[in-house]
C-alpha cells in the first residue's frame, strides 16, 4: 500500500516538471511565424488643379488730359495754351539760330587771325575776309575813318576819331549778337505765370461746374483739378529751356565779343601807324 502511494507521488511530481519546463529549440523552430499583416492600400491624392492664367491689368481710359482739356476748354484756355506753344517754338528757334551765328563768328575769327594779319595792307586784309564777317566791318570802319577825317571832323584828333569809329562798329556788332536774347529773357520770366494763369482758370471752371452739378466726390474733384495743373507744367517746360538758353548764349557772346574788341584795338594801332594811307604797307 505504502509503495503504491510513493509511486503515485513521483508520477505527479514528474508531470509537474514537464509542464513547467519550456519547449525545446527544435519544437520552437518548427512553429511557423505569424503571417505579416498587409498594409492598407494608399489612397490616391486628389488631382492638383492647374493655376489659373494671370489676368492682364485692366487699362482704364483716362478721360482727362491735354487732348480733353483742349476739346473741353473754353476760348481763354485755348488761347493761353496757344501762347505757350508759340513761346516755346520761338525760344527754340532763337537758340538754334544764335548758336549757328556764334559758330560762324568763331570761324570768322580764325580766318581773320590767319589771313588778315598776313596781308600787306589793311585794305587788302579787309578784302580777303568775307563780306558778312564782323572783322571786315571793323577794318572797313577804321579805313573809312582815316579817309573822312576832314572838314569839321578834321578838328578832332585822328587817334580819337579812329577810336570812336571802331568803337561804334564794335557796339553795332554787339547789338547784333544780342538779337533775340530779350525774347528769351521775356519767355523765361513770364511763361510760368502764364501757365499758372491757365491752371487757375481751369480750377475755377472745374469747381464751378462741380458746384452746379452738386457732386463733390473725389473723382469729380480730383480729375478736373489735376487736368488744370497741366498748364503749370507746360509753363515750366517752356520757361526752363529759355532761361538756360539765355544764360548760355550770353556767356558765348561775351567770349566772341572779347575777340572782336581785341581785333578792333589791333586795327586801331595799325591805322594810327599808317596815318592817312591805310592802303600802303
State the gist of this model.
With 281 residues, this protein is mostly helical. It is built from 10 helices and no strands.
Distance between the termini: 185 Å
Helical fraction: over 70%
Count the DSSP helices: 10
List low-pLDDT spans: 17-31
Q: Tell me the number of strands.
A: 0
Structure classification? mainly alpha
Strand content: under 5%
Largest sheet data: none
Shape: elongated
Number of domains: 1
Q: What is the string of SSEs from the N terminus onward?
A: HHHHHHHHHH
Q: Residue-averaged pLDDT, rounded?
A: 77
**For the CA atoms, what is the radius of gyration?**
53 Å
Notes on the protein architecture:
- With 281 residues, the protein is mainly alpha-helical.
- It has one domain (75-274).
- The chain has ten helices and no strands.
- α4 (75-115) packs parallel to α10 (230-274), α7 runs antiparallel to α10 and α8 (181-213) runs antiparallel to α10.
Amino acid at each position: 500500500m505504502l509503495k503504491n502511494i510513493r509511486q503515485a507521488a513521483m508520477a505527479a511530481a514528474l508531470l509537474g516538471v514537464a509542464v513547467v519546463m519550456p519547449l525545446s529549440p527544435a519544437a520552437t523552430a518548427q512553429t511557423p511565424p505569424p503571417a505579416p499583416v498587409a498594409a492598407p492600400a494608399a489612397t490616391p491624392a486628389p488631382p492638383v488643379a492647374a493655376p489659373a492664367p494671370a489676368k492682364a491689368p485692366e487699362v482704364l481710359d483716362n478721360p482727362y488730359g491735354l487732348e480733353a482739356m483742349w476739346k473741353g476748354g473754353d476760348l481763354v484756355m485755348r488761347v493761353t495754351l496757344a501762347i505757350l506753344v508759340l513761346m516755346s517754338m520761338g525760344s527754340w528757334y532763337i537758340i538754334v539760330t544764335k548758336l549757328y551765328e556764334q559758330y560762324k563768328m568763331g570761324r570768322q575769327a580764325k580766318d581773320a587771325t590767319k589771313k588778315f594779319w598776313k596781308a600787306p595792307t589793311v585794305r587788302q586784309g579787309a578784302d580777303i575776309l568775307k563780306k558778312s564777317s564782323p572783322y571786315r566791318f571793323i577794318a572797313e570802319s577804321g579805313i573809312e575813318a582815316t579817309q573822312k577825317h576832314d572838314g569839321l571832323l578834321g578838328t578832332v584828333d585822328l587817334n580819337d576819331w579812329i577810336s570812336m569809329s571802331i568803337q561804334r562798329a564794335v557796339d553795332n556788332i554787339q547789338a547784333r549778337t544780342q538779337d533775340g536774347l530779350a525774347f528769351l529773357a521775356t519767355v523765361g520770366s513770364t511763361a510760368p505765370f502764364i501757365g499758372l494763369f491757365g491752371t487757375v482758370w481751369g480750377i475755377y471752371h472745374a469747381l464751378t461746374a462741380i458746384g452746379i452739378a452738386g457732386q463733390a466726390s473725389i473723382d469729380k474733384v480730383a480729375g478736373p483739378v489735376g487736368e488744370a495743373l497741366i498748364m503749370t507744367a507746360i509753363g515750366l517746360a517752356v520757361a526752363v529751356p529759355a532761361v538756360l538758353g539765355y544764360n548760355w548764349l550770353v556767356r558765348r557772346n561775351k567770349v566772341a565779343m572779347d575777340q572782336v574788341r581785341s581785333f578792333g584795338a589791333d586795327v586801331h594801332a595799325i591805322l594810327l601807324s599808317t596815318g592817312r594811307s591805310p592802303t600802303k604797307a
